């Protein structure tokens, strides 16, 4: 339990900064809506005539841009990129920092098993991920509400934030896994952010070119796209299943490797 | 000279990794141009029918979709994002790694002045960036040549591609000054990634702060690609700002590092 609280405290400052960043991002994005909105209803007609590839490169998708909630859907992509970067770096750092700061010996001469330490660190990072998610949720609802004329977007935002939570957990477990498995934990956050950027680029390329659609299972950014979630399809069960499976697998291997690995001291 | 060689060698692997990923991104993105261009033809007719305010709200320049250089300028922001992270990483780590890896007293007991150390490290970092940029420009040139449909101005291409170097150098000097100001840098990437993304978010705040004013704050927008594309030159005031900032950052780095207490272990 001590480890749990120590970790929460150690990451408090960075978590606050990330929360501010998320709120700022939401605010910045939605403020563009005000500028957009002044051009009126014609925007939708114009958008519908755009070829898909161009809409994708602009990040516009199939949203109702005359509504604040539609605009939020465009913004959502940036929000999940930020939230997943936070998650993957948190996951990698929370394990790797002991070796980086040369505190491994201090920690493991205590009467706790390695599994116990990993569990505490995992729980603590899940709590932080949830805090970031909740802050974004509340912030999003308030900010969108400020710009919106109706209130039927709230359900959508809850669903979107739930999808974001799954992605956060997915990348968190990836970060934790890489830090536990890699022999050079110093590099863990670089490697995992590299993987994150790669999957992100992959999702952009899949969107632009429709020939490689089958690769969509490889990149989590294609799992819960705002346009599917908001157009009433909700969250697709198959992707939920894949995510949970991957999280389970990565967590399993985290314990497996971290129990056995020689720790650098 | 020894420090320079040593630093260059220890950076070499990460420089090559960054260079390959930047080159790969530009190559993959440019490979999408032919398909994109086909859509752009029909797009162009469409856009001409739009009322002027709508076109302004969408912030679209028709040229962007028509020419290969326009497409290149459109995707350049992503290259800039990756390049900035590389440069900031490099700048942050050069001086701080001696403390992080407990090699500061090894280095500082050698008969070299601190000024010389900073100079050698700056030179090594610059060399890495120059290497990245040379490869980047060559790969961009090849990719553009492969997909081009009409002739384009080589001069404008080079001017645009060179802005990557300018922005990187600015981020490098920012990294140097930050690395002597922040007391203890535990993990470089956890500072560089949020900083660059922070500038990216500020860029989006344009509609609140004002589109013109925001450009002075974020180096990512110092060199307006549209402007280069249409006018064929850089905007002088941003060039001057960049040089002033660099001189301030670098001289402050020398000054502070010269006097700084560096704790051994």
Explain this structure to me?
The complex is a heterodimer of chains A (265) and B (265). Chain A is mainly alpha-helical and 265 residues long. Chain A has one domain. Chain A has eleven helices and no strands. In chain A, helix 5 (68-100) runs parallel beside helix 8, helix 5 packs antiparallel against helix 9 and helix 8 (154-181) crosses helix 9 (188-208). Chain A is elongated. The model of chain A has no long low-confidence stretch (mean pLDDT 86). By secondary structure, chain B is mainly α. Chain B has one domain. Chain B is 82% helix and 0% strand. Chain B has 13 helices and no strands. In chain B, helix 1 (2-31) packs antiparallel against helix 5 (68-100). The longest helix of chain B has 34 residues, at 114-147. Chain B is elongated, with a radius of gyration of 21 Å. The mean pLDDT of chain B is 86. At the A-B interface, helix 2, helix 3, helix 4, helix 5 and helix 9 of A face helix 1, helix 2, helix 3, helix 5 and helix 9 of B.
Key structural traits:
heterodimer; A: 265 residues; mainly alpha; 11 helices; B: 265 residues; 13 helices
Q: How do you describe this structure in short?
A:
The complex is a heterodimer of chains A (265) and B (265). By secondary structure, chain A is mainly alpha-helical. Chain A has eleven helices and no strands.
**Share of β-strand residues of chain A:** under 5%
Order of helices and strands of chain B: HHHHHHHHHHHHH
Distance between the termini of chain A: 24 Å
Low-confidence stretches of chain A are: none
- What is the count of DSSP helices of chain A, taking H or I runs of 4+ residues? 11
- Separate helix tally of chain B: 13
What is the share of helical residues of chain A? Answer: over 70%
Shape of chain A: elongated
Structural class of chain B: mainly alpha
Report the C-alpha radius of gyration of chain A, rounded: 20 Å
Number of domains of chain B: 1
